[in-house]
Structure formats: C-alpha cells, structure tokens
Amino acid sequence: MNILTNHLPTAELQRIDAAHHMHPFTGGDALAKKGARIITRADGMMLTDSDGREVLDMMAGLWCVNIGYGRHELAEAAYRQMKELPYYNTFFQTSHVPVIALSQKLAELAPEPFNQTFFAASGSEANDTNIRLVRQYWAAVGKPDKKIIISRKNAYHGSTMGGGSLGGMAHMHSQGGLPIENIVHIDQPHWWAEGGDMTPEEFGLLRARQLEEEIDRLGEGNVAAFIAEPIQGAGGVVIPPETYWPEIQRICDAREILLIADEVILGFGRTGRWFGSEYYGIRPDIMTIAKGLSSGYAPIGGSMVSDRVAKVIAESDFNHGYTYSGHPVSCAVALENLRIMEEESLLDHVNQIAAPALAKAIATFEDHPLIGEARSLGMLGALQFTPDKSRRAPFKAPKGTIGEIARDACFANDIVMRHVGDRMIVSPPLIMTEADTEVFVDRATRALDQTYDKAKAEGLLEAA
Ligand SMILES: *Cc1c(COP(=O)(O)O)cnc(C)c1O
C-alpha cells in the first residue's frame, strides 16, 4: 500500500514540522519548543502517534469524524471515484453524477423546505457563500439596503475573512482588520458565564430579545440576516437556555430577516437528529453544512438553501463559486458516509446508546472539586472549571490558565479534550460505545485530578 509511513524518529519529524509547517491557531515558536504530537494512524475513536501511544479522541478530530476512523468503504468510494472521474467543475452548464446524487440525498435528509445545496470545500467557504446569498436575495427582491448580518459574540463561523467576521471571536477580530463591514454582534446566551443572578430561562429570553433590539437599532430595512450555531461549538459547547431558540424564531418570524443556522458541527447526527435545527424546532432559511457531512474523510461544505431563497437566487446569475464546489471525490465520500450512517442506524445508536452513555460519563464529574458545570447534549459535552461553584466564579488567574494545565494533563494521559478558556469540551465520534465511555472517564479523571493537584500546588484556585 502506498501510504506515508513514519520512517523517521519523532524528534526528527518534529524538527522538520517546526522548520517548514505553519500550524493554524498556533504560535510557531512555542510549538517548536514543545514539539507537535504526530498522529500516524487511527481506528474507531483511537489515534496512534509516532511513538506508538494510543490516544482516545474525544473531539472526533475537529468535531468531524462522526462515523469514526478506519472505515475503508470511504477510502474505496474515493478510489473508485478518482478512477472514474477525479475532477470536473459544475460551472458552465455542466454537472456530474456524484454531485447530483449527493444533492438529492441531502434534500431527502433535510426537513422541508430544503431542496437545494450550493457546495463549497469547507464550512468557512460555505459561510462566505451565505453572505453573498443573503445579500443577493434581498437585492433581487428590490431591497438592496438589507446588507447587515447580525451574529453573536463568541460564535464560530470559520476563519476566512467572511467566516471570521461572522464569528465573534475577539482573539480573531484583534488581527487582520476583522470584522469586515456590515457584520455586527450581539451577546451570546451563555448563562453559566454571563447569566448573573437570573434564571437560565429569564436570561435566555433577555439575550434573544437583543436580536429584536439590534434590528430596531439598525433599522429593519438594513438587516439581511441573523446567523447562529444552534449550540455554539468552538465557543465552548454553549447549550442555550430552553427559552432562547423559541424567542429567536418568534423574532425572525415577526421581522423581515433571513435566519442562517450554522449546522457545521450539529449537522449529521451530533444532537441525535440529522440537523440541530430539528432538535430545537428552528426553521432557518439557510443551513451551513460541512464537517460531519463526510465525517472529515474528504473536504466538503455547503449551504442548504430553502425553496423561498433558492427560487429568488435562481432568477438571475449568481456570480459566485469555487473550483471545488461539488468536488466529485468529496461528494462520493460524503454519499458513502451518509449511506453508512443510515444503514447502520447511527442516529438510533446516538439516541439509545452513545448519548445516554456520554451523559452518564459527564455527570460523574459533577462532584469534582474543580468543576462547576458538567453538561452534555447529544454527543457534545462541557466541563466548566471554577474555584467557587455557588457563585459560578471565574479564576483570579488569567483566563485559560487552568484550561491549559488540563490540556497538558490530557496529553499526558492519552486523551484528546479541548480547552476553551477554563472549560473542557468534548465532541466524540457518534460511534462511541459504553466501553469507550469507561476509557473516557478513567483517563479524564486522571487528567482532571492532576490538573486540580497542580492548580492547588501553584496557588491557582483563588476566585476572582
Ligand atoms: C468548523 C466550523 C466552521 C468552519 O468550517 P471549516 O471547514 O473549518 O472552514 C464553521 N462553522 C462552525 C459552527 C464550525 O464549527
């Protein structure tokens, strides 16, 4: 088999990596000192690194390997497609079988009124497409002033100029002149961090109503759309209060704006439904998809467009597209991924086995001395660190200090969890079994106990 195997010692691979590879969201010098962990292969939800260590991947790569690693059917689908037709574009009065089949499949899986998909190679690109789509929609119906897109602080919608601008990540906006024009951000429904003395229900309503206030402030005639992840992922697995989405939907129904649900993480089973919008009963006009669509085996993203919007866009040329829109190999891989999900009833597995097992595992951390909130929904979970549970207090130490200690402890204990500030998050493959959750609890407990001990020894458990 013609695969890249590791013939070099780890230190040499790390040296070459540091010399020639610029990593995303990383300080190169700091990484060069530590050395990158080099993953050589993976199976199920277990990664193997260049030293032969087996690491439990509680993040499904970057929230994407929903069916788990090592499914050769997807490799074979890619191989067959590459031999048959490795590439053709879909621009000039042309189409091909994989993109036709995948578009049809997506229309079948998505709720009405979603029957059309515009393809991209990533979630960021798809959200860039969405900016063009919603502005073109309003221009085409004679309302060209409706350009502003309202998003939320601490949202993640990708890393291109458009995606990064839609997102509300302060550390991204502080570099490179983001956000671009006509994108504004309201507050997020993060009750644990920002809810103060309010009940989650009161707080959810208050934060949702900011959308209405913002529309009034900007003038309804200037607002094109509101974009949101039904559950914020990269922002820290922020599960909104139950009152939030019904109120947002009420406002979107009452006002003349489009609703974009960014389903890049939630789409394809993470909540136990095909789409997170179905879980929350949201009726968006556009849904962004990527990640789980191909379980990360090939790059693909897209904008699923409702009939109302698609009809208007179709009336004239839409001057937008990517070389790899509807790439045949990615489409073939995505189709095979969806076939496996359906034939193996992966959503039933999530609802009946994996999500309850993850919920039970996450709940075991509720009493941990470092943890103030242990929550999961579907195959997403969050563990919030706090020095004072009753006050939901942050640490006196700079934000992320304890989170980083925990991340290091996860490395040392062969488990991947991600830290967002002082919050650990998980988003495991949907194939997770009860046995896997035992490995998770075992390794995470060790990592969190070590984190607590270290934080205590260094006097970092003081509340702000
Ligand atoms: C990952 C992500 C994106 C960006 O997708 P890329 O494929 O990395 O460009 C957009 N939105 C959400 C919610 C994401 O989690």
Please describe what this structure looks like.
The chain has a seven-stranded mixed sheet with strand order 4-10-9-8-7-5-6, sandwiched between helices. A four-stranded mixed sheet has the order 1-2-3-13. Strand 2 and strand 3 (54-57) form a beta hairpin. The model has no long low-confidence stretch (mean pLDDT 97). The protein is built from 17 helices and 15 strands. By secondary structure, it is α/β, with parallel strands linked by helices. The chain is globular. It folds into two domains: 37-70 and 346-457, Aspartate Aminotransferase, domain 1, CATH 3.90.1150.10; 73-343, Type I PLP-dependent aspartate aminotransferase-like (Major domain) (Aspartate Aminotransferase, domain 2, 3-Layer(aba) Sandwich), CATH 3.40.640. Helix 4 (72-84) packs antiparallel against helix 14 and helix 5 packs parallel to helix 14. Pyridoxal-5'-phosphate binds at residues 63, 122-124, 127, 156-158, 163, 229, 233-234, 262, 264-265, 290, 301. Pyridoxal-5'-phosphate (PLP) binds at residues 63, 122-124, 127, 156-158, 163, 229, 233-234, 262, 264-265, 290, 301.
